[in-house]
């Protein structure tokens, strides 16, 4: 306020306080959007993702605001797409770009191994993929090599930690698998990606971020 008052005093009698404040507001509005808001936004950063899933992700970010404390990068998995297509979208909201990766679904979600998820489930022992918002946890080295823990934030995936649902790589995920059999292998419910993608995925999707699993088909 002292700065504003000083500027008013120096401006002389021809400029009122109201006029000065109006000029400052106009100047701020003229600045590039990136200066005022460093995040480009989900809609602009990921136009290839269905509007249904983008809306659900925005809702998840609002509902779980207190848990998701880093929002520069989000991961969105569209299980409405077949496993032969890249369907894990790693969205960088600061750079305004999206990288798509292959990801397997759980065998319990596709018992006939059709390459398409038939249903979601969070039941213990189901070996199915569970729908909903996940919070990324710590990275660790497990049976599948570099991995990252996940915590389910919704009623639809609340047992994720008990079920040991994590992000990891698997031999049955990769373009060569798709080329050979027309679909990926299946996980036990985990988000399994290729060995070529796991490093970048774990590095860019660090702790405290959102991974959302859903389907554009429902």
- Please compute the radius of gyration using only Cα atoms: 23 Å
Number of domain units: 2
Would you tell me the overall average pLDDT? Answer: 86
Model regions low in confidence, pLDDT < 50 over at least 5 residues: 1-37
At the fold tier of CATH, the topology name of the largest domain is: L,D-transpeptidase catalytic domain-like
What does this entry look like structurally?
- The protein has 218 residues and is α+β, with helices and mostly antiparallel strands.
- The chain has two domains: 2-30, no CATH class; 38-214, L,D-transpeptidase catalytic domain-like (Beta Barrel), CATH 2.40.440.10.
- Helices cover 28% and strands 22% of the residues.
- It contains seven helices and eight strands.
- The chain has helices spanning 2-11, 17-29, 33-36, 42-45, 51-63, 175-181, 195-204; strands at 73-78, 88-92, 97-101, 132-142, 145-152, 166-169, 191-193, 210-214.
- An eight-stranded mixed sheet has the order 3-2-1-8-4-5-6-7.
- Helix 6 links the parallel strand 6 and strand 7.
- The radius of gyration is 23 Å and the shape is globular.
- Mean pLDDT is 86; it is low at 1-37.
